[in-house]
Specification:
The complex is a heterotrimer of chains A (292), B (448) and C (146).
Chain A lengths: L2 H10 L4 H14 L7 E6 L5 H7 L6 H8 L1 E5 L7 H11 L4 E6 L2 E2 L8 E5 L2 E4 H9 L4 E5 L1 H5 L12 E2 L1 H5 L4 E3 L6 H13 L12 H4 L10 H5 L27 H4 L34
Parallel strand pairs in A: 1-2, 1-3, 3-7, 7-9
Antiparallel strand pairs in A: 4-8, 5-6
Chain B lengths: L2 E5 L9 E8 L2 E9 L5 H5 L6 H7 L6 H16 L5 H27 L24 H29 L8 E2 L2 E2 L5 H32 L13 E3 L2 E3 L4 E3 L2 E4 L2 E3 L6 E4 L5 E4 L2 E4 L12 E4 L8 H7 L9 H25 L14 E10 L2 E10 L2 E8 L1 H5 L10 H6 L12 H7 L5 H4 L7
Antiparallel strand pairs in B: 1-2, 2-3, 4-5, 6-9, 7-8, 9-10, 11-14, 12-13, 15-16, 16-17
Helix pairs in contact in B: 2-3, 3-4, 4-5, 4-8, 5-6, 6-8, 7-8
Chain C lengths: L1 H26 L3 H33 L5 E3 L1 H6 L9 E4 L2 E4 L10 E2 L2 E2 L2 E2 L1 H7 L10 E6 L5
Parallel strand pairs in C: 1-7, 2-6
Antiparallel strand pairs in C: 2-3, 3-7, 4-5
Helix pairs in contact in C: 1-2
Classes of the chains: A alpha/beta (292), B alpha+beta (448), C alpha/beta (146).
Chain lengths: 292, 448, 146
């Protein structure tokens, strides 16, 4: 599936896009053309919200993802093993081909000691170290969430944990999937695309065009209100949120059509402004969230 | 002198926690809970716009985000002298309740169950490193099936948050004085059906599963007991009905709750005081955690579902690993019942608010949430945040020791008998029964 | 200025007249009547056309002469985009209107707030770009030598 062919798909039918991609991936896996890739999911300085968001995935859901699409070998939030055994699984997995998923920013303070993620043979293993030893070897590095992609809330001024994004740490190509949290479809859709293709087309900030190709403003259902200058004066009013500080015009995601949690709602649908959570400048450059 | 065993990471939780135990013979004689993550939200919040606190503090925690939006909203309402209408409180509590249910279902199935049930498939749950699995095949399979079902129902709970709050995690709907979403009769019916569906699952599957597990692992009613100190800031507390008012039990005896007795101690935490400011110091002698030690008076308290169930008189006064797990599941059912009351009371009326700021203001927000008692404190200068403090539930439960006592979870580990010293499964089980959330716990700053 | 006011009154009168004629044309059942009203509407539009041309001419003449309003920093601070107020910013002494510029939601733009002299921030972020020509000029900053 080439991107150009997908643009129409994105516009017309965003809801089923990750589903289509996932089905394509499964077919290829079943036909033996590609293997279920090993995936290592490293959490750093963040809130684990992207893991929780992934669990909210609808079609395909997370069980389908784990059973049919990928071998998730390491995930602090989900794996049964703990302690040294857990870390050994990580060490084993990175000997072969794998995809690295980073969630959360990487703390560099005190050489990473402000975010220790394991103890192994009496030594403290920092998130910084883990990302470095796995990041260069990985077939793909996917930064899930705004913290991993750009630093996000963890890196917010004055950046007390001296956090950096995955790309700043590794200096290699990283697929950024910003969003606070990242929408589950963006994660699963990207994984599915990487299973069936060698790469995925990215914009100049490393985001897949598939999901981050247009601004929220472009497809906002309240765009008519903007064009006709009908603005909400307070949160809770069902009009254009622009004068309250809406970041839709500067934020590239497909929220207006994809929406959240099985598509039932989204922030502007809840009569509040978009706060630009998928923006590289979130949160410092996106504040005040609500201009009163 | 015993053997030191470090279990780090304690997986199946939010954030990073390591447990260091000293084992002598078959007993744990010392335990340290090591909070391994630092974020420093209170420093991030200083100088930002007052209302931004709500959306920013949510991002402390991905699994319990609504809790922080509720607590920060309460703190701002206190500071700005806003009294929300009853309808707003009902809807806000409903969002919060949906999120608590999401937490309880996910914690029980995704985080707790793999400790007791052996999985045949589903990486990374099927890869195990312990041997102590006791369930007969048919029950083992049943709970495996329910694990998969639980994904669906916990997701539905988040759909509930989203209908009322825009999205989840990190909802947009809760703000001081208002809930922003437009409600109508159809949405209310939609929510009712969601609640009934989830309640059906909790009552018919989750409660049965916890019963099965507690039958086959009944030795865990003897393991993991804490001091008999329980604390709650109250939850779903209305004039004509209430789940729980703010309450305290110390050494098994009920006392009057007084919020001025809340203190913080940093003796064993990686912090020091410099020019009246609290600063991080990873090289501090004797310190071993980024979590600070909140104390009520001088006591290390247990907070969470078990504490709430005991304080509200719905559970007998006893505590252990399995009591904690059971109380969590029972509480899910109680809260769903409360949600059925709340949803009958809400009206689809819309309210608006204009925020007025004073030159100087302070406010405190106290609420109970999934993992226990949560405190937000804000001090404002006009519409700018001058200071912000957060004491999270996991800070109560996973604090390091102080001069006189152990942290609550450390106490739970102390004296535990280990069945197989080469395969220490007890520590993970005991610790997880508290539902640790270290991404929350390490933001605490010192109170004035 | 007086001319403009008179033209405004004329245009309003013609507009009222056209509205009236439209409803008459709609209400009448006689085909001849309909034709009659249509012709009258076209006449009115012709009148309006002439008036509009006149108006534009006057506006064009005044364009060059228009006095730029002077803002002190205190006055400028009022236009911060809050509570429905317009959002103005000053760059290099000129005051621009950013109220409806898409990237200036609520009078704030990547952490920069409206109602201020933002020359420094502008030069830092848009040094080699010309973003200003697209903005409407509303005045100049007092004390600037423009």
């Amino acid at each position: 599936m080439k991107i150009s062919g997908c643009v129409e798909e994105i516009i017309n039918n965003k809801n089923s896009l990750s589903n289509i991609l996932a089905e394509e991936a499964i077919t290829q896996i079943k036909k033996g053309r590609v293997n279920k890739p090993n995936v290592v999911w490293i959490e750093g300085t963040g809130c684990s919200g992207n893991t929780i968001s992934l669990l909210n995935a609808n079609y395909p859901d997370v069980i389908y993802l784990l059973n049919n699409m990928i071998n998730l070998k390491f995930s602090n939030s989900l794996m049964t093993c703990d302690g040294e055994k857990a870390y050994e699984i990580f060490l084993e997995t990175i000997k072969e081909e794998f995809i690295l998923v980073v969630e959360g920013a990487i703390s560099t303070r005190e050489n990473g000691l402000f975010n220790v993620i394991a103890s192994y043979k009496g030594k403290k293993i920092t998130a910084l170290e883990v990302v470095k030893i796995s990041g260069y070897k990985a077939k793909h590095v996917i930064a899930v969430g705004t913290c991993a992609s750009f630093g996000g809330v963890s890196k917010a001024n004055p950046n007390p944990s001296e956090s950096k994004s995955a790309k700043e740490i590794l200096g290699r190509d990283v697929i950024n999937l910003p969003g606070c949290p990242c929408h589950p479809d963006w994660i699963i859709g990207t994984l599915a695309y990487l299973i069936t293709n060698d790469g995925i087309e990215l914009d100049d900030e490393g985001r897949p065009l598939l999901f981050y190709g247009f601004t929220i403003h472009d497809f906002c259902p309240r765009r008519t209100y903007f064009n006709n200058r009908i603005f909400a004066q307070n949160v809770g009013e069902p009009y254009c949120m622009f004068r309250l500080g809406c970041r839709g015009p500067v934020t590239r995601t497909d929220c207006p059509t994809r929406r959240w949690n099985s598509g039932v709602n989204w922030p502007i649908g809840d009569n509040t402004p978009c706060i630009g959570c998928a923006n590289a400048y979130f949160p410092d450059g996106m504040e005040p969230f609500i201009r009163t | 002198m015993g053997r030191i065993v470090v279990i780090d990471p304690i997986t199946r939780m939010s954030g990073f926690l390591g447990i260091e135990v000293e084992v002598e013979g078959d007993k744990i004689i010392d335990a340290k809970a090591v909070g391994n993550l630092f974020r420093g939200f209170e420093k991030i919040l200083k100088g930002r716009h007052a209302l931004d606190a709500v959306y920013l503090t949510e991002r402390i925690c991905g699994i319990c985000s609504s809790a922080h939006s509720v607590a920060s909203t309460l703190a701002l309402e206190d500071a700005l002298e806003i009294t929300p209408s009853l309808n707003v409180r009902y809807i806000r509590d409903l969002i919060h309740a949906f999120d608590i249910i999401q937490n309880h279902i996910r914690h029980f199935y995704l985080f707790t169950v793999p400790d007791y049930v052996k999985f045949d498939s589903i990486n990374p749950v099927s890869e195990t490193c312990h041997k102590d699995y006791r369930l007969p095949v048919n029950l083992n399979n049943k709970i495996q099936g329910d694990y998969i079902k639980s994904i669906e129902y916990s997701k539905l709970a988040h759909v509930g948050v989203s209908i009322l709050g825009g999205k989840s995690p990190h909802n947009h709907g809760i703000l001081p004085g208002v809930v922003t979403g437009s409600l109508d009769r159809f949405k209310i019916e939609e929510l009712k059906s969601l609640i009934n569906k989830i309640k059906d699952f909790v009552d018919n599957y989750m409660l049965e599963d916890v019963d099965i597990i507690s039958n086959y692992y009944n030795d865990y009613f003897e393991k993991g007991d804490t001091y008999n100190n329980f604390l709650s800031f109250g939850l779903f507390d209305y004039e004509d009905f209430s789940y729980l008012k703010p309450s305290v039990i110390i050494n098994g005896i009920r006392q009057e709750f007084d919020k001025d007795k809340i203190r913080e101690n940093i003796a064993y935490s990686w912090y020091k005081i410099e020019d009246g400011q609290i600063v991080e110091d990873i090289n501090k002698e004797g310190a071993y955690s980024f979590v600070k030690s909140p104390r009520y008076d001088k006591w290390a308290m247990e907070v969470g579902p078990l504490a709430r169930m005991i304080l509200s008189g719905r559970y007998k006064l006893q505590n252990s690993t399995m009591d904690r797990i059971t109380a969590r599941c029972l509480e899910a059912s109680v809260i769903l019942k409360i949600m059925q009351v709340l949803i009958e009371r809400i009206e689809p009326v819309e309210e608006r608010i204009k925020y007025q700021f004073k030159d100087k203001a302070e406010g405190i927000g106290l609420t109970d949430t999934t993992r226990g008692a949560l405190l937000h404190f804000v001090s404002l200068e006009r519409d700018i945040i001058n200071g912000y403090d957060i004491i999270t539930p996991s800070a109560w439960n996973f604090s390091p020791r102080d001069e006189i006592s152990f942290g609550t979870a450390e106490k739970a580990l102390m004296g535990t008998k280990i069945n197989d010293v080469n395969d220490i499964v007890e520590v993970g089980r005991i610790v997880r029964s508290f539902d640790p959330c270290i991404s929350c716990a390490t933001h605490v700053t010192i109170r004035r | 200025m007086e001319d403009i006011c008179k033209l405004k009154e004329d245009l309003e009168r013609i507009l009222e007249r056209i509205k009236e004629l439209y409803s008459m044309e709609f209400l009448t059942l006689c085909p001849l009547g309909k034709e009659h009203y249509k012709n009258m509407i076209i006449d009115s539009i012709d009148q309006a056309y002439l008036k509009l041309e006149e108006t534009l001419n006057i506006l064009r003449q005044n364009e060059g002469k228009r006095e730029l309003k002077e803002f002190t920093l205190e006055e400028l601070a009022n236009f911060d985009g809050r509570n429905g107020k317009p959002a103005y910013v000053a760059v290099n002494g000129t005051v621009y209107d950013v109220t409806l510029i898409a990237s200036w939601g609520g009078g704030s733009h990547f952490g920069v707030l409206a109602g201020k002299d933002v020359t420094e921030e502008y030069n830092k972020c848009h040094e080699n770009e010309n973003k200003l020509s697209k903005l409407e000029v509303v005045g100049k900053l007092k004390g600037s030598n423009l």
